[in-house]
Records
---
Amino acid sequence: MKIINIGKFAVKNAFRKKTVAILAIVGIGIGLTLQIVINSYSAGMQQRFDEIFSELAGSFEIQEKNQPTTFMSQLPSNITSTIRGSPYNTRITSMSYEQQLPPTVGELYNGLLGENMLGRPRLLNIRGIVLENFMEVYSDLDELTLNSRYFTQGADECIIPYDMWKNNTELFDIGKTISLMVNNTYYYNLTIVGIIKSSVGGIRQSFTQTGYDVYTSIEVTTKILNEILRSENHFIHYESRGYTSVHISPDNYNILTVKTDITDTDKIQEYMDDLLAFLDQQYSNISFSSYSIAQALSNMSDYRKTMNTVLLIISIVTVLAGGMGIIIAQLVGVDSRLKEFAIMKATGWKEHHIILTVLIESITLGIIGALAAVSLSGLFILIFSHMPSPAPTPIFTPTMLVTAFGVSLFLGLVGGLYPGFRASSVNPIEILRGG
Amino acid sequence: MIEETITSDSKLLNDVEKKDSIIEIRDLWKVYFPDTPAEVKALRGVSLIINHGDFISLMGPSGSGKSTLLTLIGCMARPTRGEIILDGINIADLSQTQLSDIRKQKIGFVFQEMYLINTLTALENVLLPLIPYGITKRDKERAIELLKIAGLEHRINHKPTELSGGERQRVAICRALINNAPILLADEPTGNLDSKTGREILNLFKRINEEQGTTIIIATHDPQVQKYTHKTLIMQDGQVYFYEKNHN
């Protein structure tokens, strides 16, 4: 009851110096907004990294060495059986091979897929897979939207990513077809049967954002590649774009993803090196390269730590600046009300009552600043998360709310402490002396 | 006919009836900046007794020690030497917290400047001294009653900025009385008011003294105040001289 009375009184007095109080709130609001936005992006990135690590920690991709694009990489069609027969097979839990089509097949949709973050037109990346194998390695296809289904292996069907559907439902929807160009007058149609919840497709696509991953069965991509090579009339179109028949080989895979039970990123490197040496030995005319997304991300951890430290320092400095705002606001307020505090003391208020009053006043400013920061950062995060960006979706967690209010409480306490002591130490005699 | 007597303060202590005293002061000294070139002996061995229900004007030139005496009676400073006994309690050896308690329980202050808080209503300003200790329904009723006595029943919910100077001073007087303090100390309460408003305030003091039996000491330069008080203490050079009026 007593504290409520003091609290009510203090809250009423928090805005005695309106301009200074508002400036303090703005200061702490900006500081905390920055802190929340940084933390939410950091949390989003951390979650994304954690997801990728948990999914791909023991996985790596094998391609033909020194090929500029994935579809140009030509892996031997018996590579999986070679690996299965090797001593390294014991650590392997699953493998997914994939055949990709040259981006030229999507030329019909040039200009209709929007632009990526670099302002370049998005491309279609047609990925031929064995659904069962792919899903053992990746989770990208795990979630489908309502009324979706997976393609039937071997059928002329495909599934598309969520944003591709969302951004052009007229063109891309369940039951509609995607026409892939074999030559200028001949198209191979795939019926859309499913929409996945991943925004642009696979993990790599989510980083590069070059276009949309469209999944179909590997039998279909093989058929299309065969169609391209079937007649000179067909292939001439590809030759004119600098491709040779070496780049388009229906019998080969382009990329192989190997999933192992190894979780240590250093050990996976060692394993990859050994396996590649084995493959080089087995296929003397081909060189192989491997790539672990999880390991690449792990290598970025030092960079991330530095970035996080810099951002943390920036947010701390900004928040402290806001805290200084509270101290200044309270000092100005207290200085202009010294006689009022003297009266309070003269009428029986004790020093701790006055300190408590000033503390509650400064905490009020801090809390209002935190409320403003939470609203503002929520708005910013909402806006930013709807902007096309490869950055992970920011995450707004209850911990951030607690932290923001905790920081504001701390700043309110620290900011009000000195002014509180100053106010409480006023001598009521000064009033009697007319000081 | 008014019979006037002037007594030195040493005689005053012995002559006054002590059995009903509320304030006893013995050999009170207050020295500012002792043992320095700037040393000021504001009080020089003041001794006096003030009884329950006394209504006293404390007069004297600037620097005579009026405010210092009020400060010491009001428990806001410690004497250099001597004793102050308030309602039977010797306050010389009390801690700051105990002095705060004495201020809350036994003393109300009214100042030349009203120092009301602009964000609070008249009623809330009156209740200000009770805020840290909890405000009961009865406290609110008493505050309203005091405001009614002060003729401010129609101004209860007005903010200080909406009140005249006289009304603000009346709110300040009600604030000084909210604790049911038996002693009311006023320092130049009419100093900033015009003569008509000043008379209204003095009438209010008189009414409070008569109806509630509150002991009131008013430090003032205004000789008109004496017309309202029972007794006058005259201070000069840190000493008190007693000037008593007997209305026959």
---
Amino acid sequence: MAKTTTRLGDLAYMVRSKNAGPFTLTFDIMARDGEAYRAILDSGRLTADVIGQIYQVSPDQVEVFEIPPINAIKISIPRLVSAGSPQDLDVYGAQQAAPLIELPL
Amino acid sequence: MTARKTNADCVRVLAVSGFLGYGFPEESFWRGIEASPDLIACDAGTNDAGAYYLGTGSSMTSRAACQRDLTLMLDGARRIGAPVVVGSAWTSGSDQGVDLLSDIVAEIARSSGQTFRLARVYSEVRPTELDSLRSDGNLVGIGKTENITAEDLHACTRIVCAMGAEPLIAAIEEGADVVIAGRASDAALFASLPLMRRVLR
């Protein structure tokens, strides 16, 4: 039987993205339960380096907030272009979570 | 307006929806009104979508949708004697947006035969005002707005300041039944009456 890789989307019931103002993109990751939350954190994959690589921003611009009481992690990064500018392909930033959902842990 | 009982330890605020003109089920609204809130508040703005709405002075939600939401809010407010506060009028909170939304309030008042004391709180500033702050070193940027130049300021079609709760409190204290505010922090709308009554410090 092939070894299956756990993805972030398997352990979280919600992974979503949204603008936080026109210059910042923010991600909410809500784990299914406490066990899943610990597994996500223990994987050591949600680091500034990994996030920076995925979204092409410098790791020192990545903010990762852990919110244990609600089994959630919030990540904020600067947008490459400001919301609604001519180069912007996702005005509300709501379509940017897919690479995180697929992230192998 | 009918006299209201006030509870010194508790202020109830009804947030009708996340954004004026997004709509909300009438049934939920009336259930909220039955809880006898002290304030009915709704945000009407965002800058998440970028500079478009501020630059063009347009609204993200339609006039008809704003009118529908406001009609219910004013009807509910009149029945329980609670003030209505709407912030960041017409998406960007421009001065003309405050006026356009105030026009809708006036239309609703006329067509329903109601009388409201309306406060308009403006938030626009001129580039020259900000430029004089900048040259005195009193304009501090945050995030990507660091190192703002005189050219940046003068290139702006329109600039709004984000207000806190203070001007909203002043309007309510002066007896406004309806406050239509320019650019405001969402939190300020909901904190206004609790701060005014000193339930929130």
---
Amino acid sequence: MKILVCITHVPDTTSKIQFTADNTKFDTTGVQFIIGPYDDYALARAVELRDQTGGKLTVLNVGEAETEPTLRKALAIGADEAIRVNTAPKDSFYVAKQIAHYAADGNYDLILMGRESIDFNGGMVHGMVGELLGMPSFSPVMKLDLNGNLVTMAREIEGGKETLEASLPLIAGCQEPIAEWKIPNMRGIMSARTKPLNVVDTVEVATQAEATTYELPPAKGAVKLIDKDHVGELVKLLKNEAKVL
Amino acid sequence: MSILVYIEQAEGKVKKTSLEAVSFAEALAAKTGEGDVVAIALGTISADELAGIGTAGASKVLHASDSKLDSGVIQAHASAIAQAFTSVGAKTLVLAKSSLGDAVAARLAIKLDAGLVSNVVSLPSTDQGYVVKRSIFTGKAFAETELKTENKILAIKKNSVDLKTNGAQAAVVPFEVSLSDSDFASKITSTERATGEVLLPEADIVVSGGRGMKGPENWGMLEDLAKTLGAATGCSKPVSDIGWRPHHEHVGQTGVKVAPSLYIAIGISGAIQHLAGVNSSKCIVVINKDPEAPFFKAADYGIVGDAFEVVPKLTEALKAEL
Ligand SMILES: Cc1cc2nc3c(=O)[nH]c(=O)nc-3n(C[C@H](O)[C@H](O)[C@H](O)COP(=O)(O)OP(=O)(O)OC[C@H]3O[C@@H](n4cnc5c(N)ncnc54)[C@H](O)[C@@H]3O)c2cc1C
Ligand SMILES: Nc1ncnc2c1ncn2[C@@H]1O[C@H](COP(=O)(O)O)[C@@H](O)[C@H]1O
């Protein structure tokens, strides 16, 4: 069984989002980077499946050298080897092409990703890779069990979920509660240092939808407090001032 | 030439977000001169429901009625829409951003060799290149994005378009699609859907509860309030983690992103990960007993007080007023 997990290297969810260079670059000052939360779910499930079936778990990121600590963390959580496709991710299409190029000859049985990255929130790299490799893709997947070649999944639909069956190989964009996030233990952290982290070359791809400039939403005005003994006031404000009732 | 719009349906009913996509496409066509708006609808939907898509701005609805397309079979939907795209000679596909929409649009981007922009919040500007504004960092910022391809796919963030309601009924035309076995790589064995209630992702008003509600037995109070307002109920992540509420009600960075007119947060502290799911709301009301709760900073209106006291009073006041 060969499993590939694709992870993003993204600002911690509590980061203050700011831009520099005339609003053309994300400001990384003081920002902590983490494995994307959805990718972390994918990785956690992949570790469990690898332990269940045996085989090899590869983790991959398309990014420049600064993403290596994030890949090391994935190794500490339980991946067997890490791949860094050495280029800055420019847009989803560009990233999907890099991943598909790397995975094309890999004979992966299962490719797990996050449902979406928390920086650009595209939710599309898995579908693009699926189409590029001619593999079925499913997202957002909240449960994934293997029984030989048979894959049973639960996929979230608006206001509920559907249960479905498919067979390997396939690609899934994952979200909770597919598995519990795993925190690396000491042994994991030690062994991660010696696990292979290979840097691979990129394919040339023209970008299609690259971000050019950024902006922040307008600042929010101060809250209007209403006395708890006069809730009728609130109803009036919602009706006449905010006009939302 | 036409702009094609992918219509999503649930149990035969066209989704409101898809109608928003139709209205967006109509405004876009007016701007770029790309002709009229043609919608493509898949699966079992009544003729009346389909003709109604016209009110939002479509002149024609292609209908592939094969019931195998009723549920979200991603590959099959992507194939069907690609065929419609070619058949109407479209250059632009518009759809609503959703979990199914994303999955289908991504495959279509490759099939159609089209640049895809998701979370689009306004009409493109076409003065200098084709530039689209989209929401990024889970609503914490926007990016101007240049689309360089001839074929284009735009996935529209919900509640970013004024829904048109005065269009004429659309002409409904049967559409033959040819689908192969590989389009049906999966078999859906069961579907669970909350029925009868207002669906959270599409709700215009949301009443949401956090750990401050103390236990699932106290949700009756929130449900009364929600019912009075015709609202959907949501919750914070710990609440669904502990199992007080179902997972699909969890709002935030790792849950549902809502964009209602009114979001009422009760006993929720306002952690940044929760705010990420609600920051597109038009108006936010916070009820919390702690005046220092961070949620007040993101709120338009607030009441400092015990939810168990305030919420029943609020429901009464609303009943008297509405
Ligand atoms: C990577 C990551 C992703 C996350 N994603 C999400 C997400 O998507 N959504 C999400 O919600 N969280 C998410 N979280 C968790 C988030 O950080 C917070 O822990 C969570 O939102 C807190 O939930 P809460 O406000 O219900 O509970 P608490 O923080 O415990 O707050 C309870 C609040 O209730 C108030 N209260 C108590 N009693 C009463 C009363 N009687 N009347 C009125 N008020 C009362 C308290 O003053 C307090 O403000 C995420 C965390 C991480 C690390
Ligand atoms: N630069 C990247 N390197 C590796 N995987 C990525 C990268 N960008 C996105 N992905 C994967 O694709 C998923 C969806 O990303 P997106 O389409 O950007 O929302 C993420 O959750 C990751 O699993």
